[in-house]
Amino acid sequence: MNRRICTCAALLLTQTIAPAGVFVGNWEPLFKGIEHASGQAIVDASTPRQQQVQALRVDLRDPDVKLFSTPRATNGPLETFGQNTSLFLKTYGVNVAINANFYDPCCSATPGQPMNVTGLAISRGVVVSQQESATDSSVIMFTSNNVGTIVANNWPPHGTNGIYTAIAGHYVVLANGVNLGFSTPEASTPNPRTAVGISQDGRYLIMLTIDGRQPGWSDGAVDSETASWLIRFGSYNGLNLDGGGSSAMVKADCDGSPIQLNRSIDRGIPGAERVIANNFGVFAKPLPYSISNVVAVPSDATTTITWETPEAATAQIEYGTTGSYGLVARANSPSLKKHVITLNGLSPNTTYYFRITSILAGNTYTYSCKLVTSSGAANTTWLFDVTKSWKYTTNNLDGTGWQAAAYNDGSWSGPGAGLLYVESSASVNPKTTGLPPSYGPQLPAGTGVAPTYYFRTHFTFNGNPAGATLTFSNFVDDGAVFYLNGVEMRRLRMAAAPAAITYTSVTDPPGAYACTGDATCPDVFIISGPLITNLVSGDNVLAVEVHQYQLTSNDIVFGSALGYSVPGGVRPFLNLIREQGFMTLYWNGSGFTLQQADAPEGPWIDVPGPVTNSAYAFEIPSDIKFYRLRN
Question: Over the stretch 14-33, which tens digit does the pLDDT of each residue have?
Fold first, then answer.
């Protein structure tokens, strides 16, 4: 089929955006025939807007690449059953996916809700939705052998004989290399965007998302900027799909579970994906891996990952609590065939995503998966429970240093035992200390409590703080910031650092609160690593400020329990890899120091450094050495 572009634009504008700063990353292989790249920009220097961009490049000529969209609901009252993009990927086993058409009803639904698709949609040769009108009539369609066509205006509807897959969007923003975004109806409104494009030679399909509505992360794009990003990633023609809260891009990890590549924003919640009527995905084969025998061994605060390559290669792992990773660990050894890296400073009972990268003979090979650290709960010692007593005040303390351990809180009220409250719900317990202004009963609607309540308490820690992990279990209505000995540790439903928190700050995202609006379920979080280096043996001060979801909120609840675990709860095993003239020692667990001796009976000395984190690579010594761990 010949590729064609139909456009009704009377004036083709060749202007492009003039960004204040643009970064476009390299393409990295995810699957055979699918590559991923990201981009960032600060556009319009006079009123800067940030943009975080994710792109997938699909080789339409790869014989193993198959395109797929949400199939028709054969036993439902409407055209499809709603799914978010991650659920779509998991259900049908595609390797990557994005959101596609606009739909009805919008915009809050549960998975499985019957929905109608707006515009043309074809899945595996079956028409899911006919083109209803000139609205959302820009279409990208493919034959069964992945020959792509973009139709700018599919009204009246074009014929669909021979079309195997098709999705529709708002309008074309890029035609024959020309940016049409300056003449579209939404040109001046920055929003999250999803777009697709085809390269000039027809070989590549480009799938694109631009995050938005998240100040400090990404503010969205106007149509001309969307077109410019399509051009940067290799598109010659392209169109907007559904955007806003629907924008989503996910990939499959090693077991087919979804990993978010972009940061969706449904209902104002970063990371939340919207349930929609039509998603678009790609099936592909695994990469011809040069990475094999991957083994991850999680502990509570560390995880050791080993793998092999057929030839000597570099070793690196990106990891983090989201699919964006954010942290990097590199081997301190030369290029080897057998690799080991230990991820340190992890939180117990937490899911971590990781991506191994090895560069071999100039080629980059990756392997993505996830792991869950052990809980360490059996080793937790509780310092106090939610009935702990706290000093409190509602005075505006902006700029006073009230969080510091040495701060004089003698003029504050209390101490009062938790839970401290202005709340009438029988589901909130144990309500022990009433707070002003009502000293207990919830206020009438429209009558606000103080915008911020400040709390301070002392506790004694008798253990060794080195490597300790703190577990907090809290009842908070609505948001809070926690400090240990004057140092901030955690923001709970509050604007992320470095945003300033003041007396009148409310929760973030706007209107966020726990449970169903009352403190009826605990907020549990774990702090470890550098965030608690200020924990001391002896007296410690915990300070918390509790904020409302809106300034007219008529209730407040706070209480906190604190426990700790130490590295002694994990028994390490010292392991060895030997290759060429190098040895690598590695172990799980934190808080240990590597020692060496010339004989088993000693004397033992710390390996110079000292070496306190796994793994440790070194040249094989000329004489016999013995190694052990001490805590």
Answer: 333 444 589 999 998 899 99
d(CA 180, CA 224): 7
Confidence bin at 377 (pLDDT 50/70/90): low
How far apart, in Å, are the Cα atoms of 564 and each of 66, 170, 463?
Answer: 50, 54, 10
Sequence-distant (≥ 6) Cβ neighbours of residue 628 within 8 angstroms: 574, 594, 595, 597, 604
Model confidence pLDDT, tens digit, residues 229-263: 999 999 999 999 999 999 999 999 887 889 999 99
Q: Whole domain around residue 551: which residue ranges?
A: 379-565
Cβ–Cβ < 8 Å for 120, 80: no
DSSP H or E stretch at residue 122: strand 121-123
Q: How many domains does the chain have?
A: 3
Yes or no: say if 124 and 68 are a contact pair by the CB < 8 Å rule. Answer: yes
Whether 193 and 169 have beta carbons less than 8 Å apart is answered as no
| pTM of the predicted protein model | 0.63
pLDDT at 566: 66
Residues paired with 168 in a beta bridge: 139
**141/431 Cα distance (integer angstroms):** 61
CATH number for the domain that contains residue 620: 2.60.40.10
Cα–Cα distance, 335 to 312 (Å, whole number): 5
Domain membership of residue 348 (yes or no) is yes
- Longest C-alpha distance within the chain, in Å? 88
**Helix-strand-coil split of the chain, %, nearest 5:** 5, 45, 50
DSSP bridge pairs for 71: none
Question: Could you give phi then psi for residue 85, rounded to 5 degrees?
Answer: -70, -35
**Domain shared by 262 and 300, yes or no:** no
d(CA 329, CA 236): 38
Label residue 186 by pLDDT band (50, 70, 90): confident
pLDDT at position 2 over 70: no
What distance in Å separates the CA atoms of residue 334 and residue 480, rounded to the nearest whole number? 46
pLDDT of residue 45: 63
6 is a domain residue: no
* pLDDT at residue 479 tops 90: yes
Statement to judge: residues 309 and 257 lie in one domain? no
Q: Is the pLDDT of residue 366 over 90?
A: no
Paired strand residues for 277:
none
Cβ atoms of residues 224 and 19 within 8 Å: no
- 226's enclosing H/E stretch is helix 223-232
Angle (CA) 617-619-621 rounded to 5° is 125
Residue 257 contacts residue 370 (beta carbons within 8 Å): yes
Pair (598, 512) in one structural domain: no
Question: Which residues is 353 bridged to in the sheet?
Answer: 320, 370
In a domain, 326, yes or no: yes
Report the Cα 19 to chain-centroid distance in Å. Answer: 26
Average pLDDT over residues 494-501: 92
At 273, phi and psi to the nearest 5? -105, 140
Lowest mean pLDDT among 42-51, 209-218, 330-339: 42-51
